[in-house]
Specification:
The protein is of the alpha+beta class and 430 residues long. The chain is built from 15 helices and 11 strands. Belongs to the cytochrome P450 family.
């Protein structure tokens, strides 16, 4: 039985004479590589070009020319994430596994793990329920106070110099210190924490020369030690609550789910902070609000989720059976990449061409059963908002120390984050 989702008609991309795509492979003609540098600084241009040529579902090539589908439309992403019976999360369904080498750069994203990310049905509900209850127990007022203390300490380290590079010294450090504290790890700027930040970054968004698989294994080993410690000496933290939950998750399951929680809380939140600071410091609309306005900060945070969402694309979903989506024939086992950033700027939901940021109907936290657990976006907002407000209160005259056009984005099709955010300000006493 074939089912379809709403989508625009697409042009016919018939293969050239004599060309035969491998079995189970999306049609190659017109496919765009997502691993090159061409569109990584301005991915919005890529999304517009793909829409013009292919409609709302486009054939793409992942690292090593592995074929997949990139879902660009808001309705289509919502449909895929809302129909687990058609587009499921267990990556073992993928029809391309025979072509995937063991050291493939995207293996940390797609290699099946005993993690909540790859579970389905009642098992997913069980695992996600444990995470949800562990996060719900976090007091948001206490978290805000913790984040403010971390922010004050970080700002103290550079306030007297009159200049700083906020990406490394602030935006990445703050959410990581907060989340490791919530999970029961030491919270200071220890080498252990710094190593974890580095390895998480590599495993999620590897630069040239990085080894994401080795980095992921180091992250896993560190979390295994944490779970072992908390099993013998529980406390008032997320890890202990997961260990003592009536669902009775195994240590292996908890390790994998904690990695998911920490990874989701750290790099996306760090990029959310930095992308919002960039907006506040470069857009005249916010100039009157930067020095003291909570309204300006809240609006900027939401606008970034629409226009510069930290998680640009997410891999993925795998077709359970042959189906149709956006006018495309999707074969059983095909991989679909969720184009969250493209969906957020879909011209069909913004017919006037200008994206408004007044509502929160974006897909930045995904949608459906596998969206971020309900408390997670609220906690991320507390961390990001506190980080930005504290910085602007402590350093009210902060400005960029380079021209806005000199800022550069990390070369990634997956995450949207700056390589650096250099600023200057009047030196302040601690």
């Amino acid at each position: 039985m074939t089912e379809s989702a709403t989508g625009q008609p697409v042009t016919d991309d018939a293969p050239p004479p004599g060309a035969t795509p491998p079995p189970g492979c999306p049609a190659h003609p017109g496919a765009v590589s997502l691993s090159g540098l061409e569109f990584q600084q301005t991915p919005s241009e890529l999304y517009r070009a793909l829409r013009r040529r292919h409609g709302t579902v486009a054939p793409v090539l992942l690292d090593g020319d592995i074929p997949a589908w990139l879902v660009l439309g808001y309705s289509e992403v919502s449909y895929v994430t809302g129909h687990d019976e058609l587009f499921a999360r267990d990556s073992r369904r993928w029809n391309q596994w025979p072509a995937i080498p063991p050291d493939w750069p995207l293996m940390p994203f797609v290699g099946h793990q005993p993690s909540v990310l790859f579970t389905e049905g009642t098992e997913h509900q069980r695992r996600a329920g444990v995470i949800t209850e562990a996060l719900e127990a976090v007091d948001q007022f206490e978290l805000a106070q913790l984040c403010r203390e971390i922010a004050e300490a970080l700002i103290d380290s550079f306030a007297g110099s009159g200049q700083a590079e906020l990406m490394t010294s602030y935006a990445h450090a703050l959410p990581m210190r907060a989340v490791v504290r919530l999970c029961g790890m030491p919270g200071g700027g220890s080498g252990d924490t710094d190593d974890l930040v580095r390895d998480l970054r590599i495993s999620l968004d590897a630069a040239e020369g990085d080894d994401p698989v080795a980095a992921y294994l180091r992250v896993q080993a560190r979390i295994e030690r944490l779970v072992k410690d908390k099993r013998s000496s529980p406390g008032s933290d997320i890890t202990s609550r997961m260990l003592t939950h009536p669902a009775g998750l195994s240590d292996v399951e908890i390790v994998q789910d904690l990695i998911t929680v920490i990874a989701a809380a750290q790099q996306p939140t760090a990029n959310w902070i930095c992308n919002t600071l960039r907006l506040l410091l470069t857009d005249d609309r916010f100039a009157l609000n930067v020095s003291g306005g909570r309204i300006g900060v809240g609006q900027a945070l939401n606008e970034v989720l629409w226009l510069d969402t930290p998680t640009q694309n997410f891999i993925g979903r795998w077709a359970v059976r042959d189906t149709q989506l956006g006018g495309r024939q999707i074969m059983a086992g095909d991989c679909l990449v969720l184009g969250l950033a493209a969906a957020n700027t879909d011209p069909l939901i913004w017919p006037g061409g200008a994206v408004g940021a007044e509502n929160s109907a974006h897909l930045s936290f995904s949608n459906g059963e596998h969206r971020c657990p309900y408390p997670a976006p609220l906690l991320a907002d507390v961390i990001a908002r506190t980080a930005i407000e504290t910085l602007l209160e402590r350093l009210p005259d902060v400005v960029l120390s380079v021209e806005p056009h000199e800022l550069s984005w990390r070369p990634s099709i997956w995450m949207r984050g700056l390589t650096s955010l250099p600023v200057r300000f009047t030196p302040a006493a601690r």
